Amino acid sequence: MALLNVNIDHVATIRQARKADEPDPVWAAVECELAGANGITVHLRQDRRHINDRDVRLLKETVACKFNLEMSLAEPIVRIAEQVVPDQVTLVPENRAELTTEGGLDCIRCQKQIQKIVRRMHKKGILVSAFILPEENQITAAAEAGCDAVELHTGPYANAKTDEAIEKALNQLRDGRDIAFAAGLVVHAGHGLTYRNIRPIARIEGLCELNIGHSIIARAVLVGLRQAAEEMIRLLQNK
Ligand code: PXP
Predict the structure, then answer these.
(1) What is the rounded CA–CA span in Å between residue 13 and residue 200?
(2) pTM confidence score
């Protein structure tokens, strides 16, 4: 069964809408953990639009399940990861104008830089995952750079409109999983997953962690975060 990491960035997005001190992502992490989440994911962006340095520091102290820090390859953020020592970092591309992460990390173009970051993270005992499109050359480049895992981008699946396009995207994810396994990588997936589209993804054998944010936080506004996370975990269990 795929395990759920809840991305709680949007809890901080609500806080930042008023530049206030609530809702606190640290409280949100506790609710996810009580619901049975495997991990808590946050993205410390360079513009600090939602999660900030204080959140990352406190989450490191308080999260008892897996703490997964999403980050770009930017040196100041890499240094923070070295200081905070999350359980895992997920390397993502970052563009200041985007609403959310767009596209996958280009592990071919950035391979040397990724390799250096992987070495630095491994020195601290931090696992490294790379968020990439399910393409053979990207998966191979991530493995060659020393990554422990890849997070396969499920955005193309989530955005697919026809049955044919959905099946094509699912096949690309299954093929990506096989290529990643052959390269010795652990396989995660995420982006754009919802209560409505999760089932075919949950049925793909071997995806060990799913990172899901927007849909869970959106539901939490109406039913509460613990219930929202529990409902998603139930869908992963009853696939
Ligand atoms: N995985 C990665 C690498 C992401 O950047 C994001 C968005 O922050 C997610 C998963 C979660 O995506 P969503 O909010 O669409 O569930």
Answers:
(1) 29
(2) 0.97
Residues in the chain: 239
Domains, the chain, with CATH or none? 3-237 (3.20.20.70)
Residue 21, pLDDT > 80, answer yes
Active site residue 70: yes
Q: Cis omega before residue 23 (within 30°)?
A: yes
Q: Give the position of tokens 């240094």.
A: 79
Looking at 31, 33, 43, 209, which residue is catalytic? 43
Q: Which of 94, 135, 191, 209 is an active site residue? A: 191
Ligand 1: does its nearest atom lie under 6 Å from the Cβ of 49?
Answer: no
Give the helix, strand, coil percentages of the chain, each rounded to 5: 50, 15, 35
Q: Are 142 and 114 in contact (CB under 8 A)?
A: yes
